[in-house]
Specification:
Elements lengths: L1 H25 L4 H20 L6 H28 L3 H9 L7 H9 L4 H22 L7 H4 L3 H15 L5 H12 L1 H13 L7 H25 L4 H11 L6 H9 L3 H13 L1 H15 L1
Helix pairs in contact: 1-5, 1-10, 1-15, 2-6, 2-8, 2-9, 2-10, 3-4, 3-6, 3-11, 3-12, 4-11, 5-6, 11-12, 11-14, 12-15, 13-14
Length: 293
Amino acid sequence: MLEKVISILFPVFAVVAAGFFVGKAFKPDMRHINRINIDLMVPCLVFTTLSVMPMGGQQNSLIVAAVLAVLLPGVLMFGIGNIMSLPFKTWGPPQMFRNSGNLAIPLFGYAFGVSAEAPAVLLFVVSVILHITVGMALLSNSEYRFNNVLKMPLLWAAMLALVFNFNGWTVWNPLNEGMTLVGNAAVPVMLISLGVQLTAIKWSGIRVGILSTVLSLVTGAISFTLIYFFIPLPSEHMRMMLLFAMLPPAVMNFLYAERFKVGADEVASMVLFGNGFTVLTLPLLLIAAFAWL
């Protein structure tokens, strides 16, 4: 079991480590690369994956499970925040919107094989759509405009993919091959970007990082328990949901916290330490997924 877990995690952590050392050595400005990734590479990945993904009862159940895995931690954090005097706009979104892109897509691919790649992208799309709609609404102020959501290429790629899927349409093969080639670059760039971002860790925020990580595991475990008992999923999808529900916060949480001025320094600590602690948490979660589900 240990050898299997290491073989799954090593490629992911190796690329993240490469990004970390590149970040330390060259201090690259990743903003433009990340923009190209989220506006070009990721939409290509989403379209080429979802447009041919078999749709049916299993996928519908997976979508419902993903929505619950995102929203339930927010409900839980509303109560926990009141008890512990933690401002919801700072602490709620990082518990809801987790690293379903940089970490989950490659992780699920290595853990569960090629068959998991399409469901992993579907989970990512659900999470991102909720983040740019519900998440931005939770942080809303005078800067929030729903029209900005409609300008995101990823949203249109997902909608167009579903139209092609439901109608049984196919893309001209050379064009599809080109989009696939671009989409295949998305995941490595995500991992390298995550490694570069980890160079920004400030040890003064470790207490916030530890508390956030503990809370994310607790809220994720409660959410997964409800999904396990009330939503019928095949075993592979259930294993994916265990990991999905307890992933660390997505980097986008920091970008939104900075934009809406809701404790950006604290959110940065939650994101960076949460992703850093996956060296400890992911092996345990993988062992649990394979041993108990």
